[in-house]
Amino acid sequence: MPKAAKKSSKTSAFVKKLASNDRKTRDQALETLKKFLSTRASSRPFSELELQKLWKGLYYTMWYCDRPRPQQRLANDLASLFSECIPADNFAIFVQAFWVVMIKEWPDLDQWRLDKFYMLMRYVVRESFSKLKNEKWNEGLVDSYIKCLSEGVLSGDVKIPNGIVFHIIDVWLDEFERVVFEKETASKEDDEEEDEEEEEEEERKNDGNDDKEEILQLLVDVPTEKLLAPFRAIRKDALMKVLREKVRDDMLLDPRLQSWDIESGEKLKKSTENDDNDDDESDDEKWNGFGN
Predict the structure, then answer these.
(1) CB neighbour list of residue 183: distance below 8 Å, 6 or more residues apart
(2) C-alpha to C-alpha distance for 220 and 223, rounded to whole angstroms
(3) Residue 132 pLDDT > 50
(4) Taking the mean position of all CA atoms in its chain, how far away is CA 146?
(5) DSSP classification of residue 156
(6) Which end of the chain has fewer CB within 10 Å, C or N?
(7) Phi, psi of 97 (to 5 degrees)
(8) Contact 265/252 with Cβ under 8 angstroms?
(9) Phi, psi of 189 (to 5 degrees)
(10) Of residues 198 and 236, which shows the higher confidence score?
(11) pLDDT tens digits, residue range 249-269?
């Protein structure tokens, strides 16, 4: 059998185990995957197709996982692959493969499974920040990460499901804050949406008690403008008015940016007040039925 065929056969069998209905089989496959990713990626780079096949299997691993606690543990385990297993050279393509699979599978995702995939995406955003921080915000790594997002899931393309893009906007600053300032949260131990919202509200109330000088010191080496660049591009260029406004209201005007000495958005707000009077095409027409 040719070498390429053997590799393809091995990958397919591995993916089948990851997507197995049997929990023990899936758990064993996941442990094997962690070792495989750490060793193989160091010796020979993955192709984009290989990683998409792997993430297709991991997607169904999450799909078959039942009950909140196991789902939470699995989401954390899968997200930790980004920060703990993938070498820097393969990080961007690993990120890209994840979002490509999520975008492809999202239209077929039923309402009973939405929450666990929202949780997985939140954790992936978090662990991606952790990877960048662990690598001391390496310029090349950050650039490649932002590029894959800007050309993919955060491109502003109307074909990207709005449920995915809106969720990234909702969690981006929260997870940035947790990683950069090492804030303790209960989100990994409690996936009840109500409890999480209460905790986030409490954190925001306590923000005023933080020492600003200490906060700014933690941000000295963090490329905040690069990390916000895809959202600024969406705000400026996205065809959909509802998406532009979502980025403006729920991210670029977030008061935390001002407390971190990042553009508060007040000038942005003044310069875009006429948006409400735009004679834009109907958002429903622009979505063309995509997303949830």
Answers:
(1) 177, 203
(2) 8
(3) yes
(4) 11
(5) -
(6) N
(7) -60, -40
(8) yes
(9) -100, -20
(10) 236
(11) 999 999 999 889 887 454 555
Compute CA distances 129 → 118, 192, 245, whole Å.
Answer: 17, 23, 25
Over its C-alpha atoms, the chain yields an Rg (Å, rounded) of 20
Q: Which stretch, 20-34, 60-74, 129-143, 272-286, has highest mean pLDDT?
A: 129-143
**pLDDT computed for residue 281 by the predictor:** 45
Is the per-residue pLDDT at 8 higher than 80? no
Residues 6+ apart with CB under 8 A from 130: 82, 83, 179
The residue whose two tokens read 């069998």 is: 13
Yes or no: say if 126 and 178 are a contact pair by the CB < 8 Å rule. Answer: yes
Taken in order 224, 181, 191, 131, the sign of the CA dihedral is positive
| Cα separation values, 152 from 28, 85, 123, Å | 32, 23, 19
Sole residue written with tokens 């059998």 = 1
Average pLDDT of the chain is 81
Q: CA–CA separation, 181 vs 260, rounded Å?
A: 11
Report how far residue 261's alpha carbon sits from residue 277's, in angstroms, rounded to the nearest whole number. 31
- Give which of 115, 41, 34, 120 is closest to 81, Cα–Cα: 34
Task: Measure the CA–CA gap between 23 and 61, rounded to whole angstroms.
Answer: 9
- Identity of the residue numbered 59: Y
Q: Can you read off the two tokens belonging to residue 102?
A: 């999520």
Residue 128 corresponds to which tokens in the numbers above?
């991606």
**Under a CB-based contact definition with an 8 Å cutoff, are residues 62 and 112 in contact?**
no
Residue whose tokens read 């600003």: 212
| DSSP characters over 219-275 | TTT--HHHHHHHHHHHHHH-S-HHHHHHHIIIIIT-HHHHHTTS--SHHHHHHTGGG
CA distances from 163 to 36, 179, 193, 209, 291 (A): 32, 24, 17, 34, 6
38: its two tokens:
């750490």
Residue whose entry in the numeric block shows the structure tokens 């089989």:
25
